[in-house]
Structures are given as C-alpha cells and as structure tokens.
Design a protein that fits this description.
mainly alpha, elongated
C-alpha cells in the first residue's frame, strides 16, 4: 500500500511539474502580439496605397485636372485592391485567438482595421463618383446660357410679335426642361458615398424643381397666363439656388466633418491600442 501511495505521490509531482511548463499569461500575450505584428506589417502596404492614391486624387482636384476616366479608373482599381487586402487581413486578425489579458487589445485592433476598411471603401467610391457627377452636370451650363439668352429677348409692342416672343421663350423653356431631365436621369444612375450624399440629393432636388417650373412657365406663356409668370420665375430662381441655401451647406459640412471625424477616431483608437500594449508589457513583465 505504501509503494502504491508513493507512486501516486510521484504522479502528482510529475503533473505539477508539467503544469509549470504550460504557457503563462505573459507568453500567451507575447505569442498573440507576435501574430498581430505580422498582420500589421502586411497591412502597411495597402494602407500606403490608400494614402498615396488619396493624395494624388486630391491634388488633381485642387489643380483643376480633367479627371479623365483612365486616370480615375486607375485610382479606383488601386483603392479597391487595397480594400480587398485590408478585408482579408481583417479576417486573419479576427481568426487569431486572444488570451484573456489581451481581449481589450484585440477589440481595439479589430475596430481600427474595420474603420480602415470602411474609409478605404468610401474613398474608392468617392474617386468613382466625383468625376461621373461632374460629367453628368456638364450639359447644364450651356443649357442655362441658352435659356438666359432666349428669355432676355425683347419684343415689339405689337400683339403678334409679343405672341411670337412668348412662343419662342416657351420653346426655350421646354428645351431647357428636356436638357435638365436628361441630367437628372444620368444622375439617377450614380451612387454617392456618404460624404457626397447631401450634395447629390440637393442637386437632384434643385434640378427637378427647375425642370418642373420650366415646364409650367412654358405652359403659362403659351396659354396667356401672365399673372402666374412672375411667381413661377421666383420658384425657378429658388430651385436654382437650392444648393446655396444654409440648410444645404450645413448638411454638406456635416457630412465632411463625419468623414474627417472617422479619421480622427481611428487615430485615437490607434493611440489607445499602443497604450494597451504598454500596459500589458508593464503588467506582465
């Protein structure tokens, strides 16, 4: 019995010795951080692509570049490629099991990479949207000039010349309406990113308002409804200036601030992640 007891005691000692060689919280965290560091190293290249491409696109806009389809397509492809890599690395990061001590660090890192993926995706959408948005609006300027010239035409005092002038102005208004409707249809096929959504919606509302009022003005001129012309002109001007209203400008400013705010939030999260790394190093050393 004593010998059996001795064997039992030895077994306990061996098991205890084996437990002492198991991973400690410090080694578990070190292993986790090592795997995370590899993923962050791989993340550096796509993030550099995002920064370089975004800066190049912003420079072209500031310089008044034409933003040709070839150029913007190149930018968009670079950003989409970077986004795909970031999403893949995000999946790798999520798959790494964190020890209990590193749970907060893991949450911060996942939130950071998720935000980086989101901003990259929105930037790629912006690079695609802005040139198409500008191209869709391009016919509006010549159509507006033609309408202004037609409406500025003066007629003589005879009834026949007045009627002819009204008919010409009505025709110009209908032609303008047709041009605006084509722009609206073109814009309807675009998908603005969140940062451009207020501007896009305001432009659509402005164009639809001008189109509707132009049609009613044309009918009023041809139908001899002179009393309704002046109020309709006021409505037309109000619709044309819709994107200059305080409400429209505030909405656009808020969208830009939200975009910039996300960048600031990611910087704060990165700082918090670094502080958590230092905390873990000091606590487990």
């Amino acid at each position: 019995m004593r010998k059996r007891a001795t064997f039992a005691t030895l077994a306990v000692v061996v098991l205890a010795a084996g437990c002492g060689q198991q991973a400690t919280p410090r080694s578990e965290v070190a292993s986790y951080v090592k795997q995370v560091n590899k993923i962050e190293s791989a993340l550096a290249r796509p993030l550099a692509t995002v920064a370089t491409t975004g800066s190049a696109f912003a420079h072209e806009q500031a310089a008044g570049g034409t933003l040709t389809s070839l150029l913007t397509t190149s930018h968009e492809q670079a950003l989409l490629g970077a986004w795909e890599k970031i999403v893949a690395l995000k999946a790798r990061l999520a798959a790494v099991k964190a020890p209990l001590a590193a749970v907060r660090l893991r949450g911060l890192l996942l939130e950071i990479i998720d935000g980086q993926a989101g901003l990259t995706r929105e930037l790629s959408q912006l690079v695609d949207f802005l040139p198409r948005f500008s191209a869709a609006l391009r016919p509006l300027a010549p159509a507006t000039r033609q309408l202004e010239l037609a409406l500025a035409q003066q007629s003589t005092a005879t009834s026949s010349s007045v009627a002819a002038a009204y008919a010409g102005k009505a025709a110009a208004l209908r032609q303008f309406k047709h041009a605006v409707d084509a722009v609206v249809a073109h814009l309807g096929g675009l998908e603005p990113p969140p940062v451009s959504h207020p501007q896009y919606q305001t432009e659509l509302a402005s164009l639809k308002g001008m189109s509707s009022t132009a049609g009613r003005l044309a009918s009023a001129l041809v139908g001899g409804q002179q009393g309704s012309v002046q109020p309709l002109l006021v409505q037309f001007d109000r619709a044309a200036a819709l994107n200059q209203t305080t409400a429209a400008q505030k909405a656009q400013i808020a969208a830009v601030r939200a975009y910039d705010g996300e960048s600031s939030r990611l910087q704060q999260l990165s700082q918090a992640a670094e502080e958590e790394r230092l905390h873990l190093a000091n606590t487990l050393s």
